[in-house]
Amino acid sequence: MAEQINPWSSTPKMDINRLIADFGIEPFAPVKEKIADQPVFIRRDIVAGHRGYDAVADAIAQKKPFHVLTGFMPSGHPHFGHLMVMKEVVWHIQQGGKGFISMADREAHAVRGLSWEACDRYAREYMECLYALGFSGEIYSQRRNNALKDLAFEAATKVNFSELSAIYGFGPETELAHAVSVSMQVADILYPQLIAGTAPTVVPVGIDQDPHIRLTRDITNALRMFLVEDRGTHISIRVKNAPEGALDAVAKRFGGAKKYEGHIDLPAGHTAEEVDAVVREVEREFGGFGFLLPSATYHSFLQGLQGGKMSSSVPDSLVWFDDPDKDVKKKIMGALTGGRQTLEEQKKLGGEPEKCSIYQLNRFHMQDDDAELAEMCRACRAGELMCGTCKKETLERVRTFLREFKEKRDEVAHMAEW
Hints:
Elements: H1 16-22, E1 26-27, H2 29-32, H3 40-43, E2 47-51, H4 54-62, E3 67-72, H5 80-94, E4 98-103, H6 105-112, H7 116-133, E5 138-141, H8 146-156, H9 161-168, H10 176-196, E6 201-206, H11 210-223, E7 226-230, E8 235-239, H12 246-252, E9 258-260, E10 263-266, H13 272-285, E11 295-299, H14 325-333, H15 343-349, H16 357-366, H17 370-381, H18 387-412
Parallel strand pairs: 3-4, 3-6, 4-5, 6-11
Antiparallel strand pairs: 1-2, 2-11, 7-8, 8-10, 9-10
Helix pairs in contact: 6-10, 7-18, 8-10, 10-11, 14-18, 16-18
């Protein structure tokens, strides 16, 4: 039986390779070959899987329009565990994508019980971080976005509580507001196409967020008025939820169309992609959405400094961006490593960087130079690099990053308003 994923868990224990197999997530390695100038998170395989990313990779290569969106639940201060997805969004914008960020205050209020005032306070901190990293685009609050709320209502008409129970494990004790927050998540993912036009959309997330992506892709299909199928000898356009007159409108768009009760067949010479684009136009003319299936990239989690996942519920597992220097030093120097029990064993057997939170922090964020990271890994395995030395070097990198990041945040603080 497939392992269930809980997007709201603070300490998920998940085997990424197993989840890729269990839930039909595609490995990222094949599609990454389409990307010419690969950022750290792609070339180091930190992004491990995807759904439908080929469309986005093609849009990047062909310089065609695409969107990038992700969301942050403003239920606490931002920290290093949030940095990867922020970098992924900004990189996609630099590749030509139109950027969107949802501040999921409705989710924070429903799931974590935060006041609206607290949500706004934390949201501004996330906004500062995003702008400091180079984000450009739209950042919005769920509760203030009326177009989003209308879209969430439409999405909610295409899912029932049994489906939510199967995907999320909801039961009789689940509050209605929690369930409603899921439809807001779906609306978030589809919102860029509603506002900025139909185009491939990528949602960079941790793999624990896959239930939201799967549900949104199902609802996207459910919202379609027509189904376009390539039958080999011809293209078939079948009615799903189309109003009266829409099928006739589709037939008029194509020469040689053969119209039947509930469907149209097109002769050879058409491609499914070309036909689907025209059909989506008709859907929008008749009050539909015509959304493309959203895509997602899934990155592995940055290991917490005490092992497991970085989580705000375990303060020593992470470094907040506003941590005092004495706390930063305490956390880095006290971090769990892949070192041996004694200095003698370390020199004889070498360390295990794959188990080391300090090495992973460098792999994710603190060491951009691949050659230097490889040398760190080699020296660790050879027993030449001791944990204390590695921690001190990493601490200086973290201090430099935090100091420079704080300066950038201060420069853009005035932008962090609704």
